[in-house]
Amino acid sequence: MSTRIAAIAVATFKEALRDRLLVLVVVFAVAMVLFSRVLGWLSVEDEVKMVHDFSLTGMSFLSLFLAMLVGASSLAREVERRTVYTVLTRTGTRTEFILGKFVGLVGVFWLCLLGAGLVLALWVLTWGGSIGEALVAAMIGLMLEAIVLTAVALFLGALAAPAIASVGTFAFYLIGHGTEALRELTDQGKNPDFAAVYSVLYRVLPNLENVNFINATTSGRPVDWGALGAGALYVLCWTSVLLAGAIILFRRRQF
Amino acid sequence: MAAKSAASTGMSPLPMAVVGLGIVGAVLLQSPLGRSNAERRRNDFRYTPDPDVTRVLSFGHRSTLADAIWLRALPDFSREFDDLALKERWLNGVFDVVTDLEPSFYTAYSYGSTYLSLINRQADSAISLLERGVKTFEDLEAEDGQIYNGGTRLRIDLAMAYWMYKKDRAKTLEHLDIAVARPDCDFLTRGMRVGLALHDRDDLLALTFSAKDVNHQNPDAREKARLDLERTKLRIAQRCHREFVEREGRPPASVEELRAGSDIDEGAAQVVFPDVIYDDEGNVQVPALAELKLRETVRGLEWAAYHHKQNFGTWPKVEWFFHREKDASKNLEQNAFMVIRPSDLPAGTHLEIDDDGVVTVVDD
């Protein structure tokens, strides 16, 4: 089974690498990393801080756009090109197909993130900054975020048309990054009724802030590796749910 | 023929003329429209979002959004406002939202308070912003158990703001005492605290602050602390000498007489007077000071040489240390770091710099 998943993953990886959208998105991310220095020049001080902040945010958008543009349409494209029939009529099962697609897409997204991260590291070193553990933690957080976004894109791709899956992935990203701030807002007690409802919603809604360590990169605060580890487990939980959902939906699908 | 040629290339004259006229029209209109835009911006309403809402709308990228709002606000700082009350509200709104999104954004507190106090003449707002920054860093330090340099620098800025704009000596001392007790306090600030202690005739406190880093693990910091300590001893001795002359109408015959006739704390006297002498011209001197000053000069020159190497790829020639361009803009490209005069060196000596950038003072 693992051999068949690996074969599908490799095929997905190679196919995604040939996608022009991927090149476009990666160029955007690298351009954002390089352009961040210009923003640093506009600032009073904090040149390296600007490079860190805007580059890491750019890389977070890179994950999002990859999931929206490449991940969400991945299943539909296989159906459209009829390559899915070739795989499924041979020895592969639908579960293996989804898992293989997931592994392949995560591999490509990680490769893009690592490439952009390498450019960022060189860029930071060029301008007199240093690569600290906070930057490493932020990168790991972004890679974990890419996992869950890929799972969301596949789940929604199995459920609906690519355009709707893209929009849904985008909505998941916004909700995931807004959950924590909304909790802070409701904690202030300005609206007790909503606070009571939200205290329940808070536990149910996805929370990508659990793996967002970008804000800590420039503040100089120590990295809470335990929190990052717990965040990784949290990502694992959501990914398991979403992949299981994608598999169930894909099994029921009539071609 | 020409029409046929244009048609064959797909470029008929009319659309080309429309494109050309459009471009020329846009270019000609840009200047008056730009002036109109500037005039409109001068009086327009500047919106800064509520910090709570901004936090939610940052979608996790708080630090980046704080940077973006900060960068957007910077050009407006220097723009004229007809309504100064509006500008004040806008400025406070910007500082609120930026520091709320990123509480450890040191520059927003520091630059913001400098702008508010020096340019906008709002000392109270500046002090309030600095106090908020100091409190934030205090909380961060309590939470993380580590020292943040931003906290020290803001504490110093706050002390200076009380000193310059409020003439509040008690508040200045309160914040300076906390700042100088921190391990990352700079020597300039410590020097100010020493100066205030000497002014209050609290010589023992001045000596204690000066001597704080004489056993520091960094040799440069040790040297600097020793230099400050010897300087403080000299200042105390000079004050005692001046008071002796005013009281007795003559200079003391010896250091022992100076000590006996000085109104000074005994503990401070035990530290100061053993290291004091009178030179041939009857001036009070601390002999160790000259050597320490020279070593500090050499350290400064090596630092300047390092920057020369960074900027130009080579170590400077010795003449560069004595060179200062009259034109300030050229000076930045030349030696803006450390310039000395030949008289700064002991008589009969000159400078040498080796291939590793090490500067030495050698006999002629």
Strand elements of chain A, count:
0
Unreliable runs of chain A, pLDDT <50, ≥5 residues?
A: none
Percent range for β-strand residues of chain A: under 5%
| DSSP strand count of chain B | 4
Which oligomeric form is depicted?
heterodimer
Explain what you see:
The complex is a heterodimer of chains A (255) and B (364). The longest helix of chain A has 33 residues, at 94-126. The relative contact order of chain A is 0.14. Chain A has one domain. Chain A has 255 residues and is mainly alpha-helical. In chain A, helix 7 packs across helix 8. Chain A is built from ten helices and no strands. Chain B has 364 residues and is mainly α. Chain B has three domains: 44-199, Tetratricopeptide repeat domain (Serine Threonine Protein Phosphatase 5, Tetratricopeptide repeat, Alpha Horseshoe), CATH 1.25.40; 200-285; 291-363, no CATH class. Chain B is built from 16 helices and four strands. Chain B has helices at residues 2-8, 13-43, 51-57, 62-77, 84-101, 106-119, 123-144, 149-166, 169-180, 187-199, 203-210, 219-248, 255-260, 266-272, 287-312, 328-333, and strands spanning 277-278, 284-285, 349-353, 359-363. In chain B, strands 1-2 form a two-stranded antiparallel sheet. Chain B has a two-stranded antiparallel sheet with strand order 3-4. In chain B, a hairpin with a 5-residue loop joins strand 3 and strand 4. In chain B, helix 6 packs antiparallel against helix 7. The longest helix of chain B has 31 residues, at 13-43. The radius of gyration of chain B is 30 Å and the shape is extended. The model of chain B has no long low-confidence stretch (mean pLDDT 84). Chain A binds chain B through residues 39, 42-46, 49-50, 53-54, 56-57, 60, 173-174, 176-178, 180-182, 184-185, 188, 208-209, 212, 214-215, 217-222, and chain B through 52, 55-56, 58-64, 67, 70-71, 74, 102, 104, 107, 111, 140, 144, 146, 148, 150.
